[in-house]
Design brief:
mainly beta, Lipocalin, six-stranded antiparallel sheet, globular
């Protein structure tokens, strides 16, 4: 049976409102030396999305627009995520990229800080999010310094997106006060973590909307399988 395709306007209103965050994990490595225009890319949603029918395990699908190696040694990959596959539905999607974290950053965010304590379990551990916030599981909050910013839930955290001085990412958009799924990212996470030579040259917020341009300042651009991405649904008032 063919998958059901829903109109984008209907999805934005009933399933994925503007400003909703989608924390995903890249399912295959991306290497500018081997990647080609038109290549399909795919990432897995890592936490249930509050207020929607989108659950952990749904797939965000896109494609590579173009790949280039410049004379100064920089490598660029332009890509777009445009489809959400969930529960036998294929939903048109338009997103931008708020934050990106290496596989090692993702791994570190899951390691308990008090792992030497034999009584510690994943459900009661204290961990540090990508971006520095602390997660106190087993009934505790998510904090930034002494400020409570969210709460832990299975497979991630819920918090209102926050801004960070000097960074381009916005906090609450479209007037939504609903806490968002952040998985392993801090509520103010913005930009690149764990890839020192990589930058987000275009997040997808500006024209051409939805097109994400990544640049490696030196050498090939390589994203390992398991790289984390924090995407944000575009729409009225949307953006990183």
């Amino acid at each position: 049976m063919a998958a059901l395709v829903l109109p984008l306007a209907a999805v934005a209103q009933s399933t994925l409102p503007a400003g909703a965050l989608l924390p995903v994990s890249l399912d295959k490595s991306l290497d500018s030396r081997k990647t080609h225009s038109g290549q399909t890319i795919q990432a897995i949603v890592m936490q249930n999305i509050p207020g929607t029918s989108i659950h952990r395990g749904a797939k965000v699908i896109g494609h590579v627009i173009q790949v280039a190696t410049l004379q100064n040694g920089q490598a660029t990959v332009e890509l777009r995520f445009d489809t959400l596959a969930a529960r036998r539905q294929r939903i048109p999607l338009q997103v931008d990229l708020r934050a990106l974290a290496s596989f090692l950053e993702v791994e570190d965010a899951q390691v308990p800080e008090d792992m030497a304590d034999r009584g510690t379990t994943p459900e009661t551990a204290t961990t540090q999010q990508i971006g520095g916030e602390q997660v106190y599981r087993g009934g505790g909050p998510v904090t930034s310094g002494l400020t409570i910013v969210g709460q832990p839930v299975p497979n991630g955290v819920l918090a209102l997106p926050r801004t960070q001085p000097g960074k381009p990412c916005r906090g609450i958009v479209a007037g939504s006060r609903r806490p968002q799924a952040l998985w392993l990212f801090s509520s103010d996470a913005c930009g690149v973590y764990g890839y020192p030579r990589l930058r987000i040259a275009q997040s997808g917020r500006t024209t051409p909307v939805g097109d994400i341009l990544l640049v490696s300042e030196k050498g090939p651009l390589q994203l390992r399988s398991g790289t984390g991405l924090l995407l944000r649904v575009q729409g009225f008032g949307g953006g990183s």
